[in-house]
Amino acid sequence: MPLLDGRTAVITGAAQGLGYAIAQAFLAEGANVVLGDIDGAAAATAAARLSADSRTLGVECDVVSEVHVDRLLAAAKSAFGSVDIMVNNAGITRDLTMRKMRLDDFSLVIDVHLKGTWLGTRAAASVMREQGTGGSIINMSSISGKVGNPGQTNYSAAKAGIIGLTKAAAKEIGFAGVRVNALQPGIIETLMTQKLSEEVRSARLADVPLGRFGTPEEVAQVAVFLASDMSSYLTGISIEIAGGRNI
Predict the structure, then answer these.
(1) 142 closest CA partner among 117, 108, 125
(2) Annotated catalytic sites, by residue?
(3) 9 Cβ partners below 8 Å, 6+ apart?
(4) How far apart are CA 246 and CA 146, in angstroms?
(5) pLDDT tens digits, residue range 89-123?
(6) Element holding 239 (H helix, E strand)
(7) Run of H or E including 130
């Protein structure tokens, strides 16, 4: 039997990149998948590309909006009857040194990553608690939240904050059978990381013992593990998917 058979997963930032790969992996394991993205048209297109049998749904969602996040989960419940898995994945970068970074660049990255993850975690925990059947919330942090990267004071701060949020939320909602965990990818081949200069890519690759960048599919498989009953006694943890970088 597929690992996620009959469950419904909601994934933010899912029109491309890691979110899309996770949606694809969840679908292959039997889940119904709701793709949220700030670009509603892209979310709908991605959902249609993933499945032609009504097991996917694309919904416009700006994760910094409480109204949008609540609407996303309501759409999932309306379409499939439950929300069993929530992946808070949406993110952006605005990389600059502190000297050059504007306050707006700092605030926007903090809002999308940290506030967006908090809103998604809070909303999903509420729905799962009311359902009474438990659930799995997966928050997308980053290895940058562990070690910090020059030019990413905003991003690194947000990703570190997600770890603290994950641990606190796990303690709050564990009594209801809701597990909250985090992923910390390293350098993964996505559109976001492909924009890095060759100098930066080479420097970061030199820190990876496995000698290569990861793939979205490798991150997605760990997300499947955390979403499934294989990790039924894990909560409040973060898993590094970084090829050994910064161990």
Answers:
(1) 117
(2) 155
(3) 23, 26, 31, 32, 33, 34, 84, 85, 86, 87, 227
(4) 9
(5) 999 999 999 999 999 999 999 999 999 999 999 99
(6) strand 238-241
(7) helix 116-131
pTM for this prediction: 0.96
Judge whether residue 192 has pLDDT over 80. Answer: no
Q: How many residues does the chain have?
A: 247
From the centroid of its chain, how far is CA 33?
14
Gap between the terminal Cα atoms of the chain = 36
Q: What is the pLDDT of residues 72-97, one digit of tens each?
A: 999 999 999 999 999 999 999 999 99
Sketch the domain layout of the chain as residue ranges.
Answer: 8-236
- What CATH number does the domain located at 8-236 have? 3.40.50.720
Q: Can you say how many angstroms the Cα of residue 246 is from the centroid of all Cα atoms in its chain?
A: 21
From the list 19, 15, 13, the residue with the least C-alpha distance to 188 is 19
Q: How far is CA 228 from CA 31, 40, 182, in A?
A: 10, 28, 14
